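the four lines:
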Amino acid sequence: MILEVENLNVFRDGSHILRNVSLEVKKGEMVCLVGRNGAGKTTLLRTIMGYIKPKSGTIKFLGRNITGHSPHEVSILGIGYSPDDLKIFPSLSVEENIELPLITRKYNKFMVKEGLDYIYSVFPVLQSYKNKPGTHISGGERRMLAIARALVTRPSLILLDEPFEGLAPIMRSRLGDRLKVLMEQGLTLFLTSSNLYGIPEGANRIYCIERGEIIYHGNLKEMLSDKQVKEVFGLI
Amino acid sequence: MKKILSGNLFFTLILIALLALVPYIAPPFYVYLTLTSLAYIPVVIGFNILFGYTGLLSFGHGLFLALGMYTTAFLMRNYTMENLEVLILASALSAFIVGLGVGYICVKYTRIYFALLTLAFGMVFYTLLIKFTPITGGDEGLRITFKPLLLGLDFRYLPHLDFLFQPYYYYVLGIVIILTVLAYIIVSSHFGLSLKAIKENSEKAEALGINIKRFRLYSFVISAIYTSIGGALLAHITSHVTPIFSYWTTSGEIVFMTLLGGFTNFFGPIIGVFVYTLLRDFIMSTIIYWRILFGAALLLIIIFVPGGISEGLIRIYKHFKGA
Amino acid sequence: MALLEPSTITILVLTGIFSSSIIFLISAGLQIVFGIQRILNLTVGSFYAIGAYVGITFINFFLKMGFSVVYGLLFLILAGLSLSFLGPTIERGVLNFVYKKEEAFQLLATFGLVLIFEDMIKLIWGSYPQISDFGILTYGEFRFLDTSFPVYYFLVIISAFLIAFLLEFFIKKTRQGKKMRSVADDIEMSEGLGVKVRNIYILSFTIGTVLGTLAGALIIPVTAAVLGMGIEAIVLAFAVVVIAGLGSMRGALLASLIVGLLQAFITFIFPELTTFVIYLIVIAVLLIKPTGLMGKEI
Amino acid sequence: MEIGKPKPKKISKEAFPEILKERMSRREALSTGAKIGIAAAIAAIVAGVGGYFGGVSTAPTRVATQTITQPAQTITQEAQTITQTVIKTETLAAQTVTQTITQPAQTITVTQIITGTPAKVPVPSEPLRFGVMGFQTGSFAPASIAGMNAARIWADWVNQAGGILGRKVELIFEDETGPVDVRKERFTKLTVEKKVDAIIGTTATSTGLAFGPLAEQLQQIWISWDATTQQGLEETLPNPTYAFKSINNEAESVAGAVLTARFFPDIRTVAGINDDYSYGRNNLEAFMAILKRFNPKVELVKELWPKPEGTDYTSEIATLKATKADLIHSSFWSGHATIFIRQANAVGLFKDSKAALVTAGGVLPTLKKDFTPEGLLIGCNSWYFLEPRGWPLREAFVNEYVKRYNEFPVYECDHAFFSFQAYKAAVERAYEIKGSWPTKEEIAKQLTQVTVPSLSGYRSFREDHVMLTSFWQGLSKHSPDYDFIILDPVISVPPEKLQPPPGMKFHDWVKTWA
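prediction for all of em together
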């Protein structure tokens, strides 16, 4: 078991944002969390990363309790994170953006080189822009860059917040292909989507979240026939 | 709610009564300190309308303090203006004009930029005061050589301290009460609530149809007028005005008083003024390295009780009530 | 009297650049802390003053020990660097508690520190101006167009440019520099990628401290250390960072040159305006381009 | 229009009153009106009643101060002889410079002659308290602190000798730093709270302007060391009773101009660098006015006015260097002088220009040989502590000072010492006349009547309460005995050459110069 979340409760400014959320991600799985905007997806990811301290509940990563750990500890322990707003560093070049997680882990020169080569093999397009400032590339490439940053250390788990949001259909399928390749290499993915189309084909399991509560857990097919889910996504 | 209000009113009345008794019960020097503090009350209330209610930190409020003082001294010297009421109105008017001009430029910016800009304006005014010797008396400043008429009454036969401790004291107390009540009405009005809304979330406030810049400007001008009136009252106590009152250290002192008392509470700054004046007197007479204590006090307040003394008192009150 | 003879221009330009180098070091200290921690660190003025006082104590001690004056510059640099311990102490001891507070409070916290340092200096060194035994003419003089300049001026200018270059190199090329830039851009994301922000804060504040103390140590052969020198320096550095744009290192270099040269020329041509001009430029810059010449949009 | 309708956005001037009525609901209007009304009423009552009682209660208490008729002056013989043998002057050839040669007094005990005479009414037993004010921080502090140190030494000496008429003396120190209102607050505190017998000290001109009138208002004896410009005080203090002023600010430059004409007769161009406040401006003006009397061709080519709180003169010195004037005039005192000389020497300013640094001697021990060249005209104000002629009191004091504070004393010590000595002598004299402990007014009256030994020789107050003193100035010289410069030759300019006689304006006085 890679990630276990149990009875998580999160409050912000007095409102209850996550209510008793429990979920789990197994090794080699691709798990998708789907829910409307404001349902609590980003808050959940940020809580896992340690940006937000939960009021109660536990988060376990590789069997180890990481509740209340600070983000950089969580990151070093082996969770890659790509936020929904990407947060590419404008002062760093594309290559430096990719390097950063390696540097923070004190990798030596050769390991850094190896990491970069790996990323350029997955996202060849990034290599051609490697000396450009991180923000001077197109939206799709930036999305790739954000994922590359999460990926470069080969973490045990990658959290992708709405990876397909705002991408052109062609980029979307290209990114989907890349993720599939990564899955084949044995990665574990936990991603979110705000609509049903954003759920990639290879998703093993799906959680649906609404108003901070998990209202469904299962596979995609069954989910589409679930009454609550249908209501939420206006399929009725 | 009603209960709290009546409680507040009760305490306020007791406080006023105490202040009214001060000249009769306190040793002369403490009457002097109380009087100085009273004159500073409009200054900090004005500052807090801008800082506590609108969220704009001015690091150049000394400008308006000096403006009020210089207006008073200038009119008294050059036009032998005697009526204190006229002098106060004139100070308010000059603050209105200057505040409108400076404010118009400053309110376009917020946060650190606002602080820097007001600081620069304060320093420019300071340099102007030093350079325009024929009007401002340069670094020597202007002296006020005679006592003003209070409500048209002539108290000039009184010796200096007797004049300050009796008629002038009560006059200042009266003015301060009026100004405080007015400020209270202002901040609890629709206007005051709009200011708070701007401070909390300016985008939301704009969406609600509040013209942010205009409201900030109003707040700036009101603040300037209050500070200037404080200066006009202070001028007769010091009877000597110098450019130092527009120097950034004076502006810093105003900020410190407000923080000390607590900017989140309407009455906080008023407490701050009294505590600051007494504390300064105590520390300065005790050790010569008083800056260390002041700096440390500032740090402790910021770190532990950003709401200042008033917040501390409320915490203690709640603690005992809760227990 | 001809208004600007060649020798006059030489004097003014050289002096201007010399002042600029010192101003640059101080304002660079402000910039690096503002860039990373988003705090306008008034304390850098106090560091400048402490650097000067400690520099004097240091150099007088070494000269008494019998070291040759030729090593003077080295001792000064040593003095500046030795004060780096102040950085982590203050960052952890004070600033650590105000990061989450409003900007105004952060500014006031550093103001409180300035007050404390001002009296600490008085407590340790007294209120007489302190003077080092290290004379400015130790390194000789340089003659040019019937005027002369101490070689030390050039050494300071070179040191400042060297430090500027090293800083640029550090920030652009080294791993710590990359981490610093990432933190300056986005603290949360850096954390999420494993950057230990606390360490970066300590590092940047320490660099800011050392820049201040170095500036103070380098100035002492030229002048005496007096109470209030820190506050005067901070006012000037303040103007520089506003003109430069908060957080911009190259802007600081450019703005220090502008301020230093302008001061030299204005003093010569319109002496009465000297005190005004800097503030007027600050106001003008804030009105026309509030983010400064090279500042990032915030 | 209905009541409670949403308020209109814009209000024209004409429609204002109606709209105002409609805008507020009746209830709101009532409550607001009531609030304002109540507040105004309370305020008016408080102000009125308080003011009335205040006026009434204090008015009748005004009782004419009891005046004590003074018996004929009964000073002892010795005292009279002292007043007469003070200064012998010797006119120097064409330059009209006078050199003072003072008779060395025997010991400090000279003024204690009167102590021995029996008193009719016993003196109070509690100690005499003095408020001592000076800058304890900032760049003006060095002079002030020296003065305060001298006060401590004086107090210890007097206490060891049994005090003033048997009363021990006690010093209460207050900081002069801060805005004027805070300084006045400290003065008031010393007077009404600490009930000190006199306030002695003060350095800044702005302090002097504020304290002069305050001293009169509070009827408190105030003896200033340094804090007076005559311009300001003529207006505010025409006829002082309690305030005692220091010598004119510009006296240093008057002396400086005289000696400049003597030492540097060939100069044609002058550049001035002075602090941007009245002290600095008065000094340059006086310097040029007097110098022109000696040498009408002299021209002022550059005036620099750095800000008083500044501590860096790099740009100003570059300008001075570029100006290439024959002479630099500066009235920098305290730490500013040290910094200026050091920075100026660093770029070789004194190689090209002579300099008249009329107050730099105030920090003489900080003017080290390695950055202060020989041949600069340096003024030491009223006291040059290394002056060659013998004067036991000075020697004793310098030794004591160096022993206690491990540094050399400067001129402010002399002002301080004189102020206290004068007060002591005045008390003793008044007591002698009256036969019981004198009032502040009586002491103040006697202050202008006494001549006392100070560190620089015998000194006194003029009848208009202005300190009289000679000024010591000379050329800097390196001596193997000290690590700082000494003055050689050193010349003293007597009081009557330093400031106009009472009642005369400075410019009218300058015209009387031959």
